[in-house]
Design a protein that fits this description.
two-stranded parallel sheet; 139 residues; 6 strands; 13% strand; globular; 2 domains; 4 helices; Rossmann fold; alpha/beta
Amino acid sequence: MRVVKAAAVQISPVLYSREGTVEKSVRKIHELGQPGVQFATFPEPVVPYYPYFSIVQSGYHVTVFSTGEEEALEGPNGLGGYVQFYPVNALAEAGAHVDTFTNWHPNVVVDRELITGQQPMSAEEFGKTLIAKLDSSSR
């Protein structure tokens, strides 16, 4: 079994400075590389003021919660609130090709260096895909 050294990074942003936060994050990545960390994840909102889904390059294939899954969680029979936008639509507007599968079933899409999972039911498949990708990159 191959062991991958990973880090879940919890850092605060440099307030009111996207550039400062990016510099801080890059320094942290370099710091983590010293003890041999091969994979690091940062909290999504660590970089302030970024446009949602701005990391998606036009033409990438991705997956995300389907509109049907989002709708099932809305309102009084769901989690009680309503989403401001449906991620499928926002990603498509950003130029992504969104590939969703049957609601509440695992779905992982790999396009170049980007790995996306449809929802929490995709966690196991996502993990296996990530490990395989890390294994292939270390050869």
